[in-house]
Write a structure and sequence with these properties.
The complex is a heterodimer of chains A (81) and B (417).
Chain A lengths: L3 H16 L20 H15 L5 H4 L5 H12 L1
Helix pairs in contact in A: 1-2, 1-4
Chain B lengths: L3 E9 L6 H10 L5 E2 L12 E2 L12 H6 L2 H16 L15 E6 L5 H14 L8 H5 L3 H10 L5 E2 L7 H14 L5 E8 L4 H9 L29 E9 H6 L6 E10 L12 H13 L7 E5 L6 H15 L6 E3 L2 H4 L6 H15 L1 E2 L15 E2 L5 E2 L6 E8 L3 E8 L6
Parallel strand pairs in B: 4-5, 4-6, 9-10, 9-14, 10-12
Antiparallel strand pairs in B: 1-7, 1-8, 2-3, 6-7, 8-15, 11-13, 14-15
The chains are: A mainly alpha (81), B alpha/beta (417).
Amino acid sequence: MATSEEILSTLAELVYDVADVPVEDVQLDKSFVDDLDIDSLAMVEIIVGIEEKFGVTVPDDEAKNLKTVGDAVTYIEQAKA
Amino acid sequence: MSNIVITGLGATTPLGGDVASTWKALVAGTSGVTRIEEEWADGLPCQIAARAAVDPTTKVDRIRARRLDRASMMALIAAEEAWLDAGFSLAEGTDVDPDRLSVVMGTGMGGLHSLINSWDTQKGKGYRRVSPFTIPMLMANAPAANVGLLLHAKGGVHTPVSACASSNEAISNGLDILRLGRADVVVVGGTEAVIHAFPLAAFGQMQALSRRNDEPERASRPWDVDRDGFVMGEGAAVLVMETLEHAQARGARIYGRLAGAGVSADGHDMVQPDPTGEGQAKAMVKAVRDAGLQPSDIIHVNCHATSTPQGDTTEAHSMRAALGDHTAAIATGTKSMTGHLLGGAGALETMATLLALYNRVVPPTINLDNPEPDLGIDIAANTARALPAGDLAALNNSFGFGGHNVAVAVTNEFATH
């Protein structure tokens, strides 16, 4: 079972790959759109990347609730539990 | 009606990653055609192509490269060079009122690589893995839109699609926009990037491609008796056009005058040119008239000359029909070196035509070992030919599947060195 830190670390690499955001900027309190400047299409790539990397499903109506990095980490933890 | 001049040039081609290297290689008679060594070409009847000399993915940052089709990448590289060459800055509104700036970029097939790759992904891994950037990568207007975004153009961004005549049509449309007073500056050009197993198979099935796989650099040979089809090329070329008043007011360097354009349609067949050459000749005659010239003024023609058996012969006939049986114009087929850039061909070759006048030298048609007899035109065979001093005028021809014919007339009027 991955720890929150491990999930955050993997997620940060994913955000870097998709949107070139420095890994150290991807912190739990950061908003994908407002703080990390991720546009709606890149966000779709991040959601699909989360599904691949963590083996979870993120339905579209759940995806729109993942506003911060912390929201995503929490969702992944719960989905894997 | 305003005179329209060209003040900036940009290109990334099979002969070089910019205009200077491309022009030098054109005059030197260098072939950009090579064997496709990748496994995906195994078994195809045509395994040769003229690839971009500089891989565009090395010129675009990692994230942009994932969100742009190769056709758009090359369009952006050429557009940036042309814009800076014109003396403009990339900062919005610095030099040109964005509402008075338009873009017209032609392409034959748009983002075909992106379409094919995304469909492969969907078939293999399911719809969820299809990139959300796929549509803005594959749509035919993507190169024009990307160039518009780069240059902050808000006066209209357009994409003519007429196969291999697309970018000459872009130039013709740009001329209209300026003459109608709808913009002060128009960035025109074309791009194509379809060197992939599928288009090579599809064009091959039309018997349109050369099969001279063992001698790639000798495969594109317009007007030679042993020609056997065209060689696919990839690349982009962009020209900055503006009204003479606008160019002179800012003290711009001027390459010459975009003097006129002539458009016709064969109304004959989807893919075969009308063998009488009537439609092609009409486009040339219209371009000469539109430029306020006489046929005898034309000293050089950069022909469409793709190295197909029928096309090259027809064009020689149509050139004589338009310019006279005893025309002194020196013809050349630069596709012998660059391969056929399809939707990018017109812009690249109009650029070559303009530079021929500017530098007073016509690039050669290479591989012309045994010219087809009785063509009745003077071809710059195998070595570059000098042009005389004084006023010069020339044509560039582009013809496309669908029967599209577009000729563009350029002169060395207003040129500054």
